[in-house]
Design goal:
single chain; 86 residues; alpha+beta; six-stranded antiparallel β-sheet; 26% helix
């Protein structure tokens, strides 16, 4: 699992926010993983992903979507936490 996703999950644990692992693995000849963490915060459903084809995944960074508009990518775990606190 990518380091930024591990850090994000630890930060959520530290904040007492329950999260769900909804990661998926695709591919027949090679394993292509999309790591997904879903959680609720202040009445919003938040989805954070990293992996093949995600915004920033090739650089080890996270993509976040809160159900409004377009997803935001190229984020560190700290930046995701800053955004959910705002």
């Amino acid at each position: 699992m990518p380091q930024e996703m591990i850090k994000l999950r630890q930060m959520l644990d530290d904040m007492g926010i329950k999260w769900e692992d909804v990661s998926e693995h695709y591919g027949i000849l090679i394993d292509i993983a999309i790591y997904r963490t879903h959680f609720e915060h202040k009445g919003r459903h938040i989805s954070v992903i990293i992996g093949h084809g995600t915004y920033g995944g090739n650089k080890g960074l996270l993509e976040m979507w809160d159900g409004n508009g377009e997803p935001e990518g190229w984020l560190t775990a700290e930046e995701v936490i800053e955004r959910i606190k705002a």
